[in-house]
Design brief:
333 residues; alpha/beta; Rossmann fold; N-(1-d-carboxylethyl)-l-norvaline Dehydrogenase, domain 2; 16 helices; globular; binds 1,4-dihydronicotinamide adenine dinucleotide; binds 1,3-dihydroxyacetonephosphate
Length: 333
Protein backbone atom coordinates (compact mmCIF):
# COMPACT_ATOMS: atom_id res chain seq x y z
CA UNK A 1 0.00 0.00 0.00
CA UNK A 2 1.96 2.99 -1.37
CA UNK A 3 3.72 3.29 -4.71
CA UNK A 4 6.40 5.67 -3.53
CA UNK A 5 10.10 5.01 -3.41
CA UNK A 6 10.17 2.13 -0.91
CA UNK A 7 6.75 0.66 -1.71
CA UNK A 8 7.73 0.25 -5.35
CA UNK A 9 11.09 -1.35 -4.65
CA UNK A 10 9.63 -3.60 -1.96
CA UNK A 11 7.12 -4.89 -4.53
CA UNK A 12 10.09 -5.81 -6.71
CA UNK A 13 11.72 -7.69 -3.82
CA UNK A 14 8.52 -9.66 -3.11
CA UNK A 15 8.04 -10.52 -6.78
CA UNK A 16 11.71 -11.51 -7.21
CA UNK A 17 11.18 -13.81 -4.20
CA UNK A 18 8.29 -15.43 -6.08
CA UNK A 19 5.30 -13.67 -4.48
CA UNK A 20 2.66 -12.07 -6.74
CA UNK A 21 2.12 -8.44 -5.70
CA UNK A 22 -0.57 -5.83 -6.29
CA UNK A 23 0.67 -2.32 -5.56
CA UNK A 24 -1.86 0.28 -4.47
CA UNK A 25 -0.97 3.66 -5.98
CA UNK A 26 -2.65 6.87 -4.88
CA UNK A 27 -2.81 8.16 -8.46
CA UNK A 28 -4.51 6.22 -11.26
CA UNK A 29 -1.83 7.42 -13.71
CA UNK A 30 0.90 5.68 -11.68
CA UNK A 31 -1.08 2.42 -11.51
CA UNK A 32 -1.72 2.60 -15.27
CA UNK A 33 1.97 3.22 -15.99
CA UNK A 34 3.05 0.25 -13.85
CA UNK A 35 0.53 -2.05 -15.53
CA UNK A 36 1.35 -0.86 -19.04
CA UNK A 37 5.13 -0.48 -18.88
CA UNK A 38 6.18 -2.38 -15.75
CA UNK A 39 8.00 0.66 -14.43
CA UNK A 40 7.14 3.42 -11.95
CA UNK A 41 7.94 6.49 -14.05
CA UNK A 42 7.78 8.92 -11.10
CA UNK A 43 10.30 7.16 -8.87
CA UNK A 44 12.32 4.62 -10.88
CA UNK A 45 11.85 5.26 -14.61
CA UNK A 46 14.91 3.11 -15.35
CA UNK A 47 14.02 0.03 -13.26
CA UNK A 48 12.02 -2.87 -14.69
CA UNK A 49 9.48 -4.36 -12.29
CA UNK A 50 8.99 -8.15 -12.49
CA UNK A 51 5.98 -9.64 -14.28
CA UNK A 52 4.47 -10.69 -10.92
CA UNK A 53 3.88 -7.00 -10.07
CA UNK A 54 0.63 -5.30 -11.02
CA UNK A 55 -0.94 -2.09 -9.72
CA UNK A 56 -4.31 -0.57 -8.93
CA UNK A 57 -5.57 2.75 -7.59
CA UNK A 58 -8.43 0.92 -5.84
CA UNK A 59 -7.44 -0.07 -2.28
CA UNK A 60 -10.25 -2.63 -2.04
CA UNK A 61 -8.93 -4.43 -5.11
CA UNK A 62 -5.39 -4.36 -3.73
CA UNK A 63 -6.41 -5.76 -0.34
CA UNK A 64 -8.77 -8.47 -1.56
CA UNK A 65 -7.29 -11.91 -0.78
CA UNK A 66 -3.96 -10.42 0.40
CA UNK A 67 -2.17 -12.61 2.96
CA UNK A 68 0.52 -9.99 3.48
CA UNK A 69 -0.37 -6.29 3.53
CA UNK A 70 2.72 -4.09 3.27
CA UNK A 71 2.20 -0.53 4.48
CA UNK A 72 4.47 2.09 2.92
CA UNK A 73 2.93 5.55 3.18
CA UNK A 74 4.33 8.55 5.08
CA UNK A 75 4.11 7.93 8.84
CA UNK A 76 1.96 10.97 9.52
CA UNK A 77 -0.68 9.88 6.99
CA UNK A 78 -0.88 6.22 8.05
CA UNK A 79 -3.76 6.66 10.50
CA UNK A 80 -5.94 8.38 7.90
CA UNK A 81 -5.01 5.90 5.16
CA UNK A 82 -5.66 2.89 7.39
CA UNK A 83 -9.03 4.14 8.59
CA UNK A 84 -10.22 3.88 4.99
CA UNK A 85 -8.61 0.48 4.43
CA UNK A 86 -9.13 -1.45 7.65
CA UNK A 87 -12.62 -2.74 6.78
CA UNK A 88 -11.15 -4.49 3.72
CA UNK A 89 -8.28 -6.41 5.38
CA UNK A 90 -8.41 -10.20 5.32
CA UNK A 91 -8.86 -11.35 8.95
CA UNK A 92 -5.74 -13.56 8.86
CA UNK A 93 -3.48 -11.11 6.95
CA UNK A 94 -0.05 -10.16 8.27
CA UNK A 95 0.29 -6.37 8.43
CA UNK A 96 3.88 -5.35 7.70
CA UNK A 97 5.06 -1.79 8.34
CA UNK A 98 7.94 -0.40 6.28
CA UNK A 99 7.56 3.02 7.83
CA UNK A 100 10.17 4.82 9.91
CA UNK A 101 8.45 7.49 11.94
CA UNK A 102 6.62 8.28 15.18
CA UNK A 103 3.13 9.79 15.03
CA UNK A 104 2.81 13.44 15.99
CA UNK A 105 0.49 14.10 18.92
CA UNK A 106 0.08 10.49 20.08
CA UNK A 107 3.86 9.68 20.00
CA UNK A 108 2.86 6.20 18.84
CA UNK A 109 5.06 3.84 16.84
CA UNK A 110 3.62 2.73 13.52
CA UNK A 111 2.74 -0.77 14.75
CA UNK A 112 0.85 0.84 17.64
CA UNK A 113 -1.13 2.96 15.16
CA UNK A 114 -1.83 -0.16 13.08
CA UNK A 115 -3.07 -2.11 16.12
CA UNK A 116 -5.24 0.78 17.25
CA UNK A 117 -6.88 1.52 13.90
CA UNK A 118 -7.35 -2.06 12.66
CA UNK A 119 -7.88 -3.84 15.97
CA UNK A 120 -5.45 -6.55 14.76
CA UNK A 121 -3.66 -8.61 17.41
CA UNK A 122 0.01 -7.70 17.93
CA UNK A 123 0.97 -11.16 16.73
CA UNK A 124 -0.29 -10.22 13.25
CA UNK A 125 1.70 -6.99 13.03
CA UNK A 126 5.33 -6.91 11.89
CA UNK A 127 7.92 -4.30 10.96
CA UNK A 128 10.78 -4.44 8.48
CA UNK A 129 13.74 -2.13 9.06
CA UNK A 130 17.43 -1.93 8.21
CA UNK A 131 19.98 -0.22 5.92
CA UNK A 132 17.62 -0.21 2.95
CA UNK A 133 18.06 2.78 0.67
CA UNK A 134 15.49 2.06 -2.02
CA UNK A 135 17.61 3.18 -4.99
CA UNK A 136 20.46 0.78 -4.16
CA UNK A 137 18.03 -2.13 -3.72
CA UNK A 138 16.32 -1.27 -7.02
CA UNK A 139 19.75 -1.81 -8.58
CA UNK A 140 19.96 -5.16 -6.74
CA UNK A 141 22.95 -4.15 -4.64
CA UNK A 142 23.15 -6.64 -1.75
CA UNK A 143 21.80 -5.62 1.63
CA UNK A 144 20.30 -7.10 4.77
CA UNK A 145 17.32 -6.15 6.89
CA UNK A 146 15.30 -7.23 9.93
CA UNK A 147 11.72 -8.50 10.09
CA UNK A 148 10.43 -8.08 13.63
CA UNK A 149 7.25 -9.56 15.06
CA UNK A 150 6.38 -10.79 18.55
CA UNK A 151 5.23 -13.99 16.78
CA UNK A 152 8.51 -15.53 15.61
CA UNK A 153 6.71 -17.89 13.21
CA UNK A 154 5.07 -14.99 11.43
CA UNK A 155 8.41 -13.18 11.16
CA UNK A 156 9.84 -16.32 9.54
CA UNK A 157 6.93 -16.40 7.05
CA UNK A 158 7.65 -12.80 6.05
CA UNK A 159 11.38 -13.54 5.92
CA UNK A 160 10.72 -16.36 3.43
CA UNK A 161 8.48 -14.11 1.32
CA UNK A 162 11.18 -11.45 0.89
CA UNK A 163 14.46 -13.38 0.63
CA UNK A 164 16.23 -12.84 -2.70
CA UNK A 165 19.80 -12.99 -3.99
CA UNK A 166 20.22 -9.28 -3.14
CA UNK A 167 17.95 -8.94 -0.06
CA UNK A 168 18.73 -10.89 3.12
CA UNK A 169 16.25 -10.47 5.98
CA UNK A 170 16.96 -11.62 9.53
CA UNK A 171 14.21 -12.10 12.12
CA UNK A 172 13.83 -10.49 15.52
CA UNK A 173 11.06 -10.40 18.12
CA UNK A 174 12.03 -6.90 19.34
CA UNK A 175 9.43 -4.80 17.53
CA UNK A 176 9.94 -1.77 19.79
CA UNK A 177 13.72 -1.66 19.24
CA UNK A 178 13.52 -2.15 15.48
CA UNK A 179 10.91 0.56 15.08
CA UNK A 180 12.68 3.06 17.30
CA UNK A 181 15.98 2.41 15.53
CA UNK A 182 14.34 3.22 12.19
CA UNK A 183 12.56 6.35 13.37
CA UNK A 184 15.35 7.94 15.42
CA UNK A 185 18.07 7.35 12.81
CA UNK A 186 16.21 9.75 10.49
CA UNK A 187 16.60 12.54 13.05
CA UNK A 188 20.26 11.71 13.63
CA UNK A 189 20.76 11.72 9.83
CA UNK A 190 19.37 15.26 9.75
CA UNK A 191 22.04 16.24 12.30
CA UNK A 192 24.74 14.45 10.29
CA UNK A 193 23.56 16.14 7.10
CA UNK A 194 23.69 19.53 8.83
CA UNK A 195 27.27 18.84 9.91
CA UNK A 196 28.16 17.88 6.34
CA UNK A 197 26.48 21.04 5.03
CA UNK A 198 28.48 23.14 7.48
CA UNK A 199 31.70 21.55 6.15
CA UNK A 200 32.46 19.49 9.23
CA UNK A 201 34.72 16.44 8.97
CA UNK A 202 34.77 12.80 9.92
CA UNK A 203 35.41 13.22 13.64
CA UNK A 204 32.25 15.28 13.95
CA UNK A 205 30.29 12.82 11.84
CA UNK A 206 31.50 9.78 13.82
CA UNK A 207 30.61 11.60 17.03
CA UNK A 208 27.07 12.24 15.77
CA UNK A 209 26.60 8.58 14.79
CA UNK A 210 27.97 7.26 18.09
CA UNK A 211 26.19 9.69 20.37
CA UNK A 212 23.07 9.36 18.22
CA UNK A 213 23.12 5.63 18.79
CA UNK A 214 23.60 6.23 22.54
CA UNK A 215 20.45 8.35 22.74
CA UNK A 216 18.48 5.90 20.58
CA UNK A 217 19.52 3.04 22.87
CA UNK A 218 18.63 5.04 25.99
CA UNK A 219 15.12 5.70 24.72
CA UNK A 220 14.73 2.13 23.50
CA UNK A 221 15.81 0.56 26.78
CA UNK A 222 13.44 2.81 28.70
CA UNK A 223 10.62 1.61 26.45
CA UNK A 224 11.49 -2.05 26.90
CA UNK A 225 13.59 -2.70 23.78
CA UNK A 226 16.41 -5.24 23.75
CA UNK A 227 19.69 -3.25 23.80
CA UNK A 228 21.34 -5.68 21.37
CA UNK A 229 18.88 -4.60 18.66
CA UNK A 230 20.67 -1.24 18.46
CA UNK A 231 23.96 -2.93 17.54
CA UNK A 232 22.15 -4.68 14.68
CA UNK A 233 20.86 -3.84 11.22
CA UNK A 234 17.83 -1.84 12.42
CA UNK A 235 20.07 0.13 14.78
CA UNK A 236 23.67 0.82 13.82
CA UNK A 237 23.25 -0.58 10.30
CA UNK A 238 20.49 1.79 9.26
CA UNK A 239 22.02 4.69 11.17
CA UNK A 240 25.32 4.41 9.27
CA UNK A 241 23.63 3.95 5.88
CA UNK A 242 21.24 6.85 6.30
CA UNK A 243 23.71 9.27 7.86
CA UNK A 244 26.43 8.74 5.31
CA UNK A 245 24.43 8.37 2.09
CA UNK A 246 23.66 11.25 -0.25
CA UNK A 247 20.71 9.06 -1.39
CA UNK A 248 19.05 9.58 2.00
CA UNK A 249 16.32 12.21 1.99
CA UNK A 250 16.99 12.96 5.67
CA UNK A 251 20.73 13.39 5.08
CA UNK A 252 20.01 15.64 2.08
CA UNK A 253 17.44 17.69 3.98
CA UNK A 254 19.87 18.21 6.86
CA UNK A 255 22.66 19.13 4.48
CA UNK A 256 20.49 21.84 2.96
CA UNK A 257 19.75 23.23 6.43
CA UNK A 258 23.49 23.17 7.17
CA UNK A 259 24.11 25.11 3.98
CA UNK A 260 21.69 27.78 5.22
CA UNK A 261 18.45 26.78 3.46
CA UNK A 262 15.08 27.34 5.11
CA UNK A 263 12.78 24.39 5.88
CA UNK A 264 10.73 25.14 2.74
CA UNK A 265 13.83 25.40 0.53
CA UNK A 266 15.21 22.12 1.91
CA UNK A 267 11.85 20.40 1.27
CA UNK A 268 11.91 21.58 -2.36
CA UNK A 269 15.34 19.99 -2.88
CA UNK A 270 14.47 16.71 -1.10
CA UNK A 271 11.00 16.32 -2.76
CA UNK A 272 10.13 12.92 -1.17
CA UNK A 273 9.27 12.14 2.46
CA UNK A 274 12.04 13.07 4.94
CA UNK A 275 10.40 11.52 8.00
CA UNK A 276 12.81 12.98 10.57
CA UNK A 277 11.59 16.54 10.01
CA UNK A 278 8.25 15.71 11.63
CA UNK A 279 9.37 12.80 13.79
CA UNK A 280 11.96 14.94 15.60
CA UNK A 281 8.95 16.54 17.32
CA UNK A 282 7.20 13.33 18.28
CA UNK A 283 10.47 11.68 19.35
CA UNK A 284 11.45 14.55 21.64
CA UNK A 285 7.90 14.58 23.03
CA UNK A 286 8.13 10.84 23.68
CA UNK A 287 11.56 11.21 25.30
CA UNK A 288 10.27 13.96 27.60
CA UNK A 289 7.23 11.84 28.51
CA UNK A 290 9.41 8.95 29.66
CA UNK A 291 12.21 11.11 31.10
CA UNK A 292 15.07 10.28 28.72
CA UNK A 293 17.56 12.90 27.51
CA UNK A 294 18.00 13.05 23.72
CA UNK A 295 20.18 16.12 23.15
CA UNK A 296 20.88 15.60 19.43
CA UNK A 297 17.19 15.04 18.65
CA UNK A 298 16.35 18.11 20.76
CA UNK A 299 18.85 20.21 18.82
CA UNK A 300 17.46 19.00 15.47
CA UNK A 301 13.92 19.77 16.63
CA UNK A 302 14.93 23.29 17.58
CA UNK A 303 16.67 23.85 14.23
CA UNK A 304 13.70 22.51 12.26
CA UNK A 305 10.86 24.04 14.24
CA UNK A 306 12.18 26.89 16.38
CA UNK A 307 14.54 28.57 13.95
CA UNK A 308 17.74 27.72 15.87
CA UNK A 309 20.83 28.21 13.70
CA UNK A 310 22.62 24.87 13.12
CA UNK A 311 25.89 26.43 14.32
CA UNK A 312 24.24 27.52 17.56
CA UNK A 313 22.95 23.95 17.92
CA UNK A 314 26.54 22.67 17.70
CA UNK A 315 27.62 25.12 20.41
CA UNK A 316 24.77 23.96 22.65
CA UNK A 317 25.69 20.30 22.23
CA UNK A 318 29.41 20.90 22.78
CA UNK A 319 28.68 23.04 25.85
CA UNK A 320 26.74 20.34 27.70
CA UNK A 321 27.96 19.13 31.05
CA UNK A 322 30.77 16.57 30.69
CA UNK A 323 30.20 13.06 32.07
CA UNK A 324 31.44 9.47 32.06
CA UNK A 325 30.63 7.72 28.78
CA UNK A 326 29.18 4.64 30.48
CA UNK A 327 26.66 6.74 32.42
CA UNK A 328 25.26 8.22 29.26
CA UNK A 329 24.55 4.78 27.84
CA UNK A 330 22.31 3.88 30.77
CA UNK A 331 18.55 4.07 30.30
CA UNK A 332 18.05 6.05 33.51
CA UNK A 333 20.16 8.98 32.23
N1 LIG B 1 12.78 5.33 0.38
C1 LIG B 1 13.56 4.56 1.10
O1 LIG B 1 14.72 4.30 0.74
C2 LIG B 1 13.04 3.97 2.37
C3 LIG B 1 11.90 4.46 3.01
N2 LIG B 1 11.48 3.93 4.19
C4 LIG B 1 10.28 4.41 4.86
O2 LIG B 1 9.15 4.04 4.08
C5 LIG B 1 8.07 4.97 4.30
C6 LIG B 1 7.54 5.41 2.96
O3 LIG B 1 8.60 6.13 2.34
P1 LIG B 1 8.82 6.30 0.81
O4 LIG B 1 8.20 5.24 0.00
O5 LIG B 1 10.26 6.50 0.62
O6 LIG B 1 8.04 7.70 0.63
P2 LIG B 1 7.58 8.40 -0.70
O7 LIG B 1 7.37 9.82 -0.36
O8 LIG B 1 8.48 8.02 -1.81
O9 LIG B 1 6.17 7.69 -0.99
C7 LIG B 1 5.05 7.75 -0.16
C8 LIG B 1 3.86 7.13 -0.85
O10 LIG B 1 2.72 7.25 -0.03
C9 LIG B 1 1.63 7.71 -0.80
N3 LIG B 1 0.65 8.37 0.02
C10 LIG B 1 -0.50 7.82 0.42
N4 LIG B 1 -1.23 8.65 1.14
C11 LIG B 1 -0.55 9.78 1.21
C12 LIG B 1 -0.81 11.03 1.81
N5 LIG B 1 -1.95 11.26 2.47
N6 LIG B 1 0.13 11.98 1.71
C13 LIG B 1 1.29 11.75 1.04
N7 LIG B 1 1.58 10.58 0.44
C14 LIG B 1 0.66 9.61 0.53
C15 LIG B 1 2.27 8.59 -1.86
O11 LIG B 1 1.43 8.71 -2.98
C16 LIG B 1 3.53 7.82 -2.18
O12 LIG B 1 3.25 6.86 -3.14
C17 LIG B 1 8.67 6.11 5.15
O13 LIG B 1 8.28 5.94 6.48
C18 LIG B 1 10.18 5.92 5.01
O14 LIG B 1 10.88 6.36 6.15
C19 LIG B 1 12.13 2.89 4.76
C20 LIG B 1 13.23 2.35 4.16
C21 LIG B 1 13.76 2.83 2.92
O1 LIG C 1 15.36 4.42 5.66
C1 LIG C 1 16.10 4.58 4.73
C2 LIG C 1 17.28 3.71 4.51
O2 LIG C 1 17.26 2.59 5.34
C3 LIG C 1 15.89 5.71 3.79
O3 LIG C 1 16.34 6.87 4.37
P1 LIG C 1 15.72 8.27 3.91
O4 LIG C 1 14.25 8.22 4.25
O5 LIG C 1 16.47 9.30 4.67
O6 LIG C 1 15.94 8.37 2.43
Amino acid sequence: MGAGSWGTVFAKILADAGTPVTIWARRQSVADAINAGHRNPDYFPDIDLPGLVSATADPVEALEGADLVVLSVPSQTLRGNLAAWSGHLEPHATLLSLMKGIELGTTERMTEVIAEVTGAAESRIAVLSGPNLAREIAEEQPTASVVACIDHGRAVDVQKAVTTSYFRPYTNTDVVGCELGGAVKNVIALAYGMAAGMGMGDNTKATIITRGLAETSRLGMRLGADPTTFAGLAGLGDLVATCSSPLSRNHTFGEQLGLGATLEEAARVTKQTAEGVKSCRSITDLARKVGVEMPICDAVERVCHEGLDPRAAVALLMGRETKPETDSLRSDK
